[in-house]
Design brief:
Length: 260
C-alpha cells in the first residue's frame, strides 16, 4: 500500500516567529515538504526537517512567483506522491490568504488536508502597535477589508457606503498602493476627515514602523515616511489608544532583531 499524502494548511502568524501555534510548529517539524509564502519568518523554515524539500511560492504585488493554479497543482502532486506537505501561509490561512482556494483544490482532488488556523495580521499587527481592534466605549465592531482591488475587475468589491456608515474599526490589508482611494472613498461616504488612522508597516517584526494621523493627512504622512507593503491600515477611534498602550506595552519587538 503506498503511503497516502496529506496537506497541512498552516497559519504561520504575522511575522514574529513566536506567533505560530503549537499545532502548526509540530506539523512543520514533521513534514516531508514545506511550501511557503513571502511573509513567512525565515527562522521558522529552520524548524523544518533538514531533509525536507522547501518550495518558495511567494508573491509580491505584481510579481507573481507562481500562479495560484500552479500552487494548487504542486500541493496535489506532492500529496499524491504520498508526502506530507506543510503549506505555510502568512497570518491565518483563511483571512485574505487564498487558503480557501487551496482547500477547494485539495477537496476536488480527494486529498486529505488539515487547516491549522493562525494569528492573523489583521488583529496581531494593530495589537503590537498597542491598538486593540475593539474597545468597549469606542468600537464594538471591527471590519476586515481588502485594500487591494483587482484592476481587471470593472466594479469594486468593497461597498464603501456600507463600511463608511458602520461606526466601528476598519482594518485594511493590502492597502498601501490604494491608500489615496481608501481615504477618498471613506471621506466621500461620510467618515469625518479628522478620524484617527494608523498604518503599521512590517508589524510584529523588528522592522515594525507605525505612522499615525487622520484621514485628512495620512496619505501625505505615509508618502513622507516612504511606507511600503506589507502594512495594515487601521481607521477609527481605537487608534488613539496606540499612543498610550504602544508606549507602555512590553511587546517583544526589541528581542526580534536576530530573526530576520
Ligand atoms: N492571511 C494573512 C493576510 C494575507 S494578505 C493574515 O491573516 O495575516 C497580505 C496582507 O497582510 C499584507 O498586504 C498586509 O496588509 C498584511 N500583513 C501581513 N503581515 C503583515 C505584517 N507583518 N505587517 C503588516 N501587515 C501585514
Amino acid at each position: 500500500m503506498p503511503k497516502t499524502g496529506i496537506v497541512y494548511l498552516i497559519g504561520a502568524g504575522p511575522g514574529d516567529p513566536g506567533l505560530i501555534t503549537v499545532r502548526g510548529l509540530e506539523l512543520l517539524r514533521c513534514a516531508d515538504v514545506v511550501v511557503y509564502d513571502r511573509l513567512i519568518a525565515p527562522s521558522l523554515l529552520r524548524e523544518a526537517r533538514p531533509d525536507a524539500e522547501q518550495v518558495y511560492v511567494g508573491k509580491a504585488v505584481s510579481h507573481h512567483t507562481l500562479p495560484q493554479c500552479e500552487i494548487n497543482a504542486l500541493l496535489v502532486d506532492r500529496a499524491r506522491r504520498g508526502q506530507s506537505v506543510a503549506r505555510l501561509k502568512g497570518g491565518d490561512p483563511f483571512v485574505f490568504g487564498r487558503g480557501g482556494e487551496e482547500a477547494l483544490a485539495l477537496a476536488a482532488a480527494r486529498i486529505r488536508f488539515e487547516i491549522v488556523p493562525g494569528v492573523t495580521s489583521a488583529i496581531a499587527v494593530p495589537a503590537y502597535a498597542g491598538i486593540p481592534v475593539t474597545h468597549r466605549s469606542t468600537a464594538s465592531t471591527v471590519t476586515f477589508i481588502t485594500g487591494h482591488e483587482d484592476t481587471h475587475r470593472s466594479e469594486t468589491g468593497v461597498d464603501w457606503a456600507t463600511i463608511s456608515a458602520v461606526k466601528g474599526t476598519l482594518v485594511f490589508l493590502m492597502g498601501v498602493t490604494n491608500l489615496p482611494t481608501i481615504v477618498k472613498e471613506l471621506i466621500e461616504n461620510g467618515r469625518p476627515s479628522d478620524t484617527p488612522v494608523a498604518i503599521v508597516e512590517r508589524g510584529t517584526t523588528a522592522q515594525q514602523r507605525v505612522i499615525a494621523g487622520t484621514l485628512a493627512d495620512i496619505h501625505e504622512r505615509a508618502r513622507a515616511a516612504r511606507l511600503l507593503p506589507p502594512a495594515i491600515t487601521i481607521v477609527g477611534e481605537v487608534v488613539t489608544l496606540g499612543a498610550i498602550l504602544g508606549a507602555w506595552s512590553a511587546t517583544r519587538l526589541l528581542s526580534l532583531g536576530s530573526e530576520e
